[in-house]
């Protein structure tokens, strides 16, 4: 047995011992391990259903979830282009429905992490810089149709949306529209924030997106952590239906 293989097995053994014997909080609904479970489940879904395309993560913060997906792809023998989208300045200033009283308060700059900090975290988590592309900037300024062409993104296979706010999630979904395919997995890290209210946050953004696009439907796939939700996307064969109809 090669040393690299032995090391990987010892690492897995140690991790499982910590998770299953000491921490005892290991389900997909766990706030501690739910995202890691979801990353592995998503990779297996893409492999078993032969869903090809890129991995796009919106709201990477320090990169823990991003790294979990990288290692999940490696475990399951997948070669997936990876793209990290973030303002790298934290959340924008909440306003409108994102700042209603009586809900968890968010603030401008919350979850801030610089590009350099993200890169250092990736190195610490054994993710090589050649494995991903970083796209910095607030979404309403950077997510243009030209950006997808420049990055060479034709189809999205797996998408992780960790935007929290409605005003951040909306431009993300608009950008994704032409990239969706039958089988794209959409994962919302904060779908049930704002007390799970359907007219707030990421839930509101997705509901509006689907209402405007009759050619796109979703199937409830998995719930993870205490506030996360994953959906399988279904599209018609007519790619034009992925765009917002004129006049809407």
Short summary of the structure?
By secondary structure, this protein is of the alpha/beta class.
Please outline the helices and strands.
Blueprint: H1 3-23, H2 34-49, E1 54-58, H3 64-75, E2 82-86, H4 115-124, E3 132-136, H5 139-142, H6 145-151, E4 156-161, H7 166-176, E5 185-188, H8 201-212, E6 216-224, E7 228-235
Parallel strand pairs: 1-2, 1-4, 2-3, 4-5
Antiparallel strand pairs: 5-7, 6-7
Helix pairs in contact: 2-3, 7-8
Characterize the structure shown.
The chain is an alpha/beta fold. 38% of the residues lie in helices and 17% in strands. The chain is built from 8 helices and 7 strands; from the N terminus they run ααβαβαβααβαβαββ. It has helices at 3-23, 34-49, 64-75, 115-124, 139-142, 145-151, 166-176, 201-212, and strands at residues 54-58, 82-86, 132-136, 156-161, 185-188, 216-224, 228-235. A 7-stranded mixed β-sheet has the order 3-2-1-4-5-7-6, with helices on both faces. Strand 4, helix 7 (166-176) and strand 5 form a beta-alpha-beta unit. The longest helix is centred in the first third of the chain and has 21 residues, at 3-23. The chain starts with a helix and ends in a 13-residue tail after the last strand.
């Amino acid at each position: 047995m090669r040393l690299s293989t032995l090391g990987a097995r010892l690492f897995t053994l140690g991790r499982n011992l910590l998770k299953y014997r000491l921490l005892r909080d290991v389900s997909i609904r766990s706030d501690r391990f739910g995202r890691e479970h979801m990353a592995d489940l998503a990779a297996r879904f893409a492999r078993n259903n032969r869903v090809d395309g890129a991995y796009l993560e919106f709201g990477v913060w320090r990169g823990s979830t991003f790294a979990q997906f990288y290692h999940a792809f490696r475990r399951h023998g997948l070669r997936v282009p990876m793209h990290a989208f973030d303002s790298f300045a934290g959340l924008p200033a909440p306003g409108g429905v994102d700042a209603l009283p009586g809900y968890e308060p968010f603030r401008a700059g919350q979850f801030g992490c610089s590009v350099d900090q993200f890169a250092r975290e990736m190195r610490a988590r054994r993710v090589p810089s050649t494995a991903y592309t970083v796209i910095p900037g607030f979404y309403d300024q950077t997510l243009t149709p030209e950006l997808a062409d420049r990055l060479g993104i034709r189809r999205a296979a797996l998408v992780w949306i960790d935007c929290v706010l409605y005003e951040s999630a909306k431009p993300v979904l608009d950008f994704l529209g032409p990239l969706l395919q039958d089988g794209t997995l959409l994962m919302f890290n904060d779908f049930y924030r704002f007390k799970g209210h359907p007219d707030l946050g990421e839930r509101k953004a997705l509901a509006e997106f689907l209402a405007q696009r009759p050619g796109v439907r979703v199937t409830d796939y998995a719930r993870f952590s205490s506030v996360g939700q994953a959906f399988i996307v279904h599209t018609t064969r007519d790619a034009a239906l992925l765009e917002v109809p004129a006049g809407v």
